[in-house]
Amino acid sequence: MSSNIRSGGRRGLPPSSLLSVSSSGSSLRPPSSSVAQGATYATALNLEEWEAKAPLSDLETRSVSAVKTASEKIPYPLKFTKDDDDLEDEGGEDHESASSRSATPINVRFASSRPSTPSISSPLHRTAASASRVSALHPRQPVQTTQQLYDWFALIDRSVAHAQESHFRAHVASVSEYLNMCDLLLERVDEIEREVERMMEYWWSVEEGGRSLKDACERVLEERDKLIELTDDIGAHLEYFQELDQATRMLNHPGEQLIYQGDFLYMVEKVDICIEFLRARRHYKESEIYLLRFHQCLTRAMTLIKMNFIGSLRALSSDISKRITASSSSASTSAPLSQTAIMHLLYTRFKTVAGKLAPLLGELERRARKYPDELGSLLSECHSAYFSVRKALLVPRVLEEIKGLDPSRSELVELTRSGCSYLKQLCTDEFHLYREFFSTGEAQL
């Protein structure tokens, strides 16, 4: 567009009497017929005549200056903000040239309800002059008809409406962005929940596996304890079987002093315990064989006690008999034995031997009560040997005492009393001596 249109109401001039200002600013000419058809215009006036015929008062001049100042600060639509920032320096120079004459309304943009054709010094015109920064709101062709002006005004109106609604669209875009972000967060939360569920499933599987492993370990520990207990039991049970070898080795090397050793009675006690153990567990493999062999060992041990007892009694009896016989013979040069010496030989010597043989005979008696079929005969032999030895020693002594009782030298009552007293004392001494050796078998006395 080659000319600028100033819109504004001068006093006494209707809007249809607007004049066009030429590009040089030296003359005014009426608008073309396409802008205002059928209108009649007055004779063209120059700027000096305009100023002379329509002078402005001070108030009006101040009002025009205020309108000018307000028009300069009107914000442009969002599409022109960047272009206005680039042309800020150029616009400053134009404003200085336009403000040199405050009374001249040229280059002043008045706020109007209808948009006017941009002036030469306006930022829109300068933006259109720049080929590289042409806005879409600038008309590509000069506005020549009313329809083109309306179309251009509609474009400007839509642009203003668009600019006014920009913050709503920005808010909608921000809300959409937030919604998208929330959707992403929800998807991420769902993904994390699924991952947590998988982790929980894995954890439960591990927990179940750990519980199963714990139960299996506890069962293995229980089995181990049972096996250890079984091993200990087997080892403890094997000790009873192994005791046979030790007893056999001891009995295979007998000696005269074997039965007087402390290990002998201990061995006999263990053999007895092993026999009781095997008799209660006859279902064990080869238990009958071991039981028989243990019985044999026990019989051999008790036989050793019997033989030593009988041998000791016979040796003692032989020695006592020799001393009594030697003292009582007429060819003996020694004095006859006194009653005290005879009592010492017949009882004290036997009590001395009983101190050594009594514990062994006690073991024999105890075993004979438990196993009468195997060991009862051995105890009977001991009793018989004891009674035979005592009989051999006492019969000559009793006969001699009976011969000493002369009926002719004492009364019958006194003789009877003396005989009964002697027999009573003899039986008492013999009973006490028997109890020194044995604790059973009183019926045989």
* Proportion of residues in extended strands: under 5%
Please give the number of β-strands.
2
The mean pLDDT is: 75
Structural class, from helix and strand content? mainly alpha
Principal-axes shape call: rod-shaped
**Uncertain residue ranges:** 1-41, 87-132
Distance between the termini: 170 Å
Radius of gyration: 77 Å
Q: Helical element count? A: 12
Strand order of the largest sheet: 1-2
User: What is the H/E order?
Assistant: EEHHHHHHHHHHHH
The profile of the biggest β sheet is: 2 strands, antiparallel
Question: What does this protein structure show overall?
Answer:
- The structure is a single chain.
- The chain has twelve helices and two strands, in the order ββαααααααααααα.
- The longest helix has 86 residues, at 166-251.
- Helix content is 68%, strand content 1%.
- The model is unreliable at 1-41 and 87-132 (pLDDT under 50).
- Helix 7 (166-251) runs parallel beside helix 9 and helix 8 (262-280) packs antiparallel against helix 9 (287-328).
- It is an all-alpha fold.
- It has a two-stranded antiparallel sheet with strand order 1-2.
